[in-house]
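Hi U.,

Before I forget, here's the chain from the pilot set. I'm dumping it here mostly so it's searchable later in email.
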Amino acid sequence: MLDQISSPTLLLNEQICRNNLKKMADKAKRNGMKLVPHFKTAQSQQIGEWAKEYGIREITVSSIKMAEYFCGQGWDNIHIAFPFNPRETKKINDLAKDQSLSVQLINVAVTEKLAMELENPLGFFIEIDAGYGRTGVAVTDFELIEGIMRMAIKTDKLKFKGFYIHAGHSYYEKDIEKLYDETRAALNMLKNKYRSEYPELVTRTGDTPGCSVIEDFGDIDEMGPGNFVFYDLMQVNLGSCKREDIAVALAVPVVDIHLGRKEILVHGGGVHLAKDVLTEPDGSKNFGEVVFLNENGWEIPSERSFLKSISQEHGLIKASDELLAKVKVGDLLGILPIHSCMTADCMGAYLSLNGQIVDHVEGH
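Structure:
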C-alpha cells in the first residue's frame, strides 16, 4: 500500500474508525439515546455504510451540498445542522421529495419563507444557544421560540422535531461536567415546557468532547457528535481520546534532512493539513505529530516529533533523535492531524490500509 504513495495522502485505518463508531454507539445505547453522528468529519458514503452496521440509521450534515451527497443512501433522516439559509429553499424542496430531511431554525423570517414556499414535508429543530454565543436562540427567549412554532403551524409541511444544542464551548472550557449540567438543565426545561403541546419532541446535543467523556446525559434523547469517528490531536489535548484512537494520518514524503538543526523537511503543508495548531509547553507551535508508517497502519514513536511550521506545500518537523536515526530522504512519514475534519476536507479522499480509495464529498 505504501509503495503506491508518491505525494501527500490521507490514510484511513478502518479498524480504528469502526472501533470509534462502535464505542459511541454502545455509549448511546447504554444511556437510552439515539446516536445521529455528524458526518461533517467523515463526509463519506463508505464510512456511512460502516456506521449502519452499528445500528446508526440517521445522520447529521452541515450543508445542503453534503445532504445531497448522502441522499439516496437509505438513511431514515438527514439533519442539516446549520441555521437554514433561505436562499436554498428551492434546493431543500427538491431534495425533500425523495428523502426525509430536517433543518435548524433560529428566527421567524426564515420559518415564514419555508412556511410559504415548501411543497414537501420538512422537519425542523430549534437551535438553542446555551452559552456558546455562536448561533441559536437564547434558552429563555420563549417569545422567539414560540414565534417560530406559531409560524411553522401555518403549513402542514413543517414538522417541529425538538431542540438542538451544540455545546461548542466544550472545545475550550475546562469544566465539561459543569457545561453539561447547563446543557442538561436547558434541554430538560424546554422539554417540560413544551412536551404537552408537542408530545413527540426530542432533545439533542452534539459535541465530541462532551459525548466522549460525559456519562450522565439526564433525559437528553439524542447525541450527534462528529469528530469521534476519526478523533485528532485536539481531542487528545482535550482528554476526549488517546493518540491510539486517531483513525487518520497524512502520509508525507521526506524531501530533506538537517541533522545539525534536527529538522526534517516534508512535502505536506497547509493545503493538506489546514492550519489548525496546538501550542507546546515552551510556546512553540505544533501542526501535527509524527508516526511511523507500516503496511498495517502506523506506530506511535516513543519520542515525540512534530511539525513546527508549515507553509502551503512544505512542513518542517522538529525531529527527535529516534526519528533522525530511522529516517532517510525519500521515506514516508505519517502526521496525526490537529483537526481531522479540516484535514479530510483539504484532502478530499482517503486511502485505506488495503490500498482502496475511500470517497469524500469534496473529491466527488
